[in-house]
Design brief:
- Chain A: One of its GO terms (molecular function) is oxidoreductase activity, acting on NAD(P)H, quinone or similar compound as acceptor.
- The complex is a heterodimer of chains A (276) and B (221).
- Chain A is built from ten helices and seven strands.
- With 276 residues, chain A is an alpha+beta fold.
- Chain A has a domain of 109 residues.
- In chain A, the strands form two sheets. In chain A, strands 1-2-3-4-5 form a five-stranded antiparallel beta sheet. Chain A has a two-stranded parallel ribbon with strand order 6-7.
- In chain A, helix 9 links the parallel strand 6 and strand 7.
- The longest helix of chain A has 46 residues.
- Chain A is globular.
- The N and C termini of chain A lie far apart (81 Å).
- Chain B has 221 residues and is mostly helical.
- Chain B has a two-stranded antiparallel ribbon with strand order 1-2.
- In chain B, strand 1 and strand 2 form a beta hairpin.
- The longest helix of chain B has 31 residues.
- The chains are: A alpha+beta (276), B mainly alpha (221).
- At the A-B interface, helix 1 of A face helix 5 and helix 6 of B.
């Protein structure tokens, strides 16, 4: 073959190939990105409906546009600052526009995703200014209020944290008592298929429904995933706060246990005011 | 068919579907199947075949990557420096796989979520690399295209067979449509849970290999 052509040729060929491949992929990525972003946005909304009790079939029946418009009418997105007052998303939008985002790019964001973008930018700014994150992090958090037909039926809290391989993101929906679980869903994860990835299976999510996050004294105990069946490993009196585990997914479920508790704790002060 | 064969036979090299070309496509379908005979690409044959829909998408994805990589490698075959040919193939294959993965994310998001890492794992599917090294490096683009197509189809045939068996026995469905009647369940019929798990695929694959070797009379020494 081209063995005679020497090392220079080999280097040049390798460089050329890398250049062609990377340009090709960048182009493809740029072209496909808006469509992927739409898909992700739709997926998030579908998961919100799944968290408040829609079955997979019910969700599949709805066309993408219907899901999105239903989201607009059925959910109210609230962004709270660290003192649990409603935060000013217009201010966030202004900041993001100042950081190079276009009006067009932000048009599809709702208050919660706007806040996510802002939080990410705040981290970057903090790193640039070499300041401790706490000084910059305003502790914004999003809350979805589910109110089909005008009456509030559930509160949905976004949850996220580390699984085994990557961040797991999801939602947990609470009934009006802010204690009983209405549903849970996970929409982004990179857990092992067949093991950790089974957290997205229906039977596992159904386990959470009807469980309670508060103990007898009204303190937050959250919900823990057992090793194996709850009936075998957890005393009867605690069944209210435990769900069946997935064999082979110990680290995934450990992660969920941790971040579910941590995230619920963030909302607890606000929920206390709502419960009264 | 025999007419086409007769007219195509005298023309050499430039023919599109001569006997040799048809042989290239036909051979890997059964007699020299990449999965059952060469026992390559087993990982995905076990992983994505619990139901037919993801199986079919996986087959399309692999066909796109395999034919694409065969043609590209074949086009470059006289320019690829021998010393770095493996890494060159890998770059081409992985670029194509990323392309397929991104396309799925844009146009079939639910499916790409279901297939998760297995689309990216096409990179490590030995069939793709094997055909590039064994065929595309030594043949012109058109035969390489046919070889890629043939091997993808051979892979797909087996995957769809396994997927069909697993979905039918494991969940009583075909392409997500219930085929085992409710009456049968009421009489006490139970779906075979084993078929959903990887061992179920192993067992089915074993049966297919058995039948195949019995018909082709090909035995390992």
């Amino acid at each position: 073959m081209s063995a005679k052509k020497g090392a220079g040729y080999t280097y040049a060929f390798a460089m050329g190939l890398c250049l062609v491949c990377s340009i090709g992929l960048s182009l493809a990525y740029t072209v496909l990105k808006p469509m992927q972003a739409d898909n992700v946005r739709l997926d998030i909304v579908q998961n919100l409906f799944s968290a408040v009790g829609y079955t997979p079939d019910q969700i599949a029946e709805l066309k993408p546009a219907e899901v999105l418009s239903k989201f607009e009418s059925d959910f109210e997105v609230k962004v709270l600052d660290k003192d649990n007052n409603e935060a000013d998303t217009a201010f966030m939008k202004k900041e993001l526009l100042g950081l190079g985002y276009t009006e067009e790019a932000l048009a599809k964001e709702n208050a919660a995703s706007m806040m996510n973008l802002f939080n990410r930018k705040v981290k970057l700014l903090a790193r640039k200014a070499d300041k401790k994150l706490e000084e910059y992090d305003p502790g914004y958090k999003a809350l979805y209020v589910y109110q089909p037909g005008g009456t509030i039926e559930a509160y949905v809290v976004p949850i996220q944290g580390n699984g085994l391989w990557d961040i797991i993101k999801g939602y947990i929906a609470l009934e009006l008592d802010l204690n009983t679980v209405k549903g849970i869903s996970f929409y982004e994860h990179a857990e092992t298929p067949g093991l950790g990835a089974r957290i997205t299976e229906d039977w596992f999510k159904q386990n959470y429904v009807g469980k309670h996050i508060l103990g007898n004294a009204g303190e937050l105990v959250s919900i823990t995933i057992a090793k194996g069946k709850v009936a075998d490993s957890v005393p009867e009196s605690k069944h209210d706060h435990w769900v069946d585990g997935i064999s082979g997914a110990t680290l995934t479920t450990k992660g969920i246990n941790q971040f579910l508790y941590a995230d619920l704790q963030k909302y607890e002060p606000y929920f206390k005011t709502l419960r009264n | 068919m025999s007419v086409a064969e007769a007219t195509a036979a005298p023309v050499k090299k430039t023919e599109l579907f001569g006997k040799k070309e048809r042989q290239i496509v036909k051979d890997p379908l059964w007699d020299n199947n990449p999965i059952t005979l060469q026992v390559l690409g087993i990982c995905s044959a076990l992983a994505v075949t619990t139901s037919l829909q993801p199986t079919a998408v996986m087959c399309v994805a692999l066909t796109a990557v395999l034919t694409g990589s065969n043609v590209i490698i074949s086009l470059m075959r006289n320019f690829i420096p021998g010393k770095i040919r493996i890494i060159v193939m890998l770059s081409v294959i992985s670029s194509l796989v990323i392309l397929v993965d991104q396309t799925l994310k844009a146009f079939a998001y639910g499916m790409s979520k279901e297939l998760s890492v297995f689309v990216s794992l096409i990179i490590t599917n030995c069939i793709v690399m094997g055909r590039a090294e064994a065929f595309a490096m030594a043949n012109k683009p058109w035969p390489s295209f046919l070889d890629g197509l043939g091997n993808s189809l051979g892979y797909s045939v087996i995957l769809l067979m396994v997927g069909f068996g697993r979905e039918l026995l494991g969940s009583g469905k075909v392409f997500g449509i219930q085929v085992v009647p409710q009456a049968l369940y009421e009489m006490g019929y139970v779906d075979m849970g084993l078929m959903i798990t990887p061992p179920g695929a192993f067992i089915l694959l074993g049966f297919i290999i058995w039948i195949q070797r019995e018909t082709s009379k090909h035995y390992e020494d």
